[in-house]
Write a structure and sequence with these properties.
The protein has about 210 residues and is mainly alpha-helical. It has a single domain, classed as Tetracycline Repressor, domain 2, CATH 1.10.357.10. The protein contains nine helices and no strands. Helix 4 crosses helix 5. The radius of gyration is 21 Å and the shape is elongated. The termini are far apart.
Length: about 210
């Protein structure tokens, strides 16, 4: 039978404690992420976080330095959920055009996909991320850049595979697609008219089909 030294047992204890802390941290993120995405940073209170997690203030802030830290982690979680939903659908497609059209399907019918509660976290955070929330604004900016790069990469692949015209500017087209998608979501949300969003998503669909 293997013998364990006191130091080894202590190390195991520390590892178990760290994993428990990480599990608690992840629990807080998962429970508060939908609230931040729906109510925003300013609208989410400590009581909201306590109610969602069932934890005390001390337990929450024992795992995060402050509300800002929770909000940043929640944004990252919501962003990961959004990009995962897109990637899962894209993996079912073969051509660059088909993969790009996944954006149209998901953002037109995001309630039918495992999308973050409250809609697009990039839009929700961008509209609130002013000079009073520089770290959130930076996160939102980085997310837009990553999204733009992903779309641009698909367009470049489409050009290489002779799916799309070589005269297309991938960067310009990518940011235009994002602007239309986010604008469509914003207009539909503010006006309450889903047909506006659908109309704009049709414009995105036409833009993608016209890349050929």
């Amino acid at each position: 039978m293997q013998k364990y030294t006191g130091r080894y047992i202590f190390a195991l204890s520390i590892q178990n404690e760290m994993s428990k802390a990480e599990r608690t941290r992840q629990f807080i993120i998962e429970k508060t992420a939908p609230i931040f995405n729906v109510k925003g940073y300013a609208g989410t209170s400590l009581n909201d976080m306590i109610s969602a997690t069932g934890l005390t203030k001390g337990s929450i802030y024992g795992n995060f330095e402050n509300k800002d830290e929770v909000a940043l982690a929640a944004f990252e979680h919501n962003l990961k959920c959004m990009f995962t939903a897109v990637r899962v659908e894209m993996d079912k497609k073969s051509t660059a055009r088909e993969k790009l059209l996944v954006y149209v399907d998901i953002y037109e019918n995001f309630l039918h996909h495992p999308f973050p509660a409250g809609g697009c976290p990039i839009l929700n955070t961008s509209t609130e991320a002013d000079d009073t929330h520089p770290r959130l604004r930076e996160k939102a900016s980085d997310a837009i850049t990553s999204w733009k790069n992903a779309i641009s990469g698909l367009i470049k692949k489409g050009i290489v595979d002779n799916e799309f015209s070589s005269h297309i500017d991938p960067e310009e087209t990518a940011i235009s697609i994002i602007a239309l998608i986010e604008g469509g979501i914003m207009i539909g949300k503010v006006t309450g008219k889903l047909n506006y969003r659908k109309a704009i998503m049709k414009a995105v669909q036409k833009m993608i089909n016209d890349l050929e």
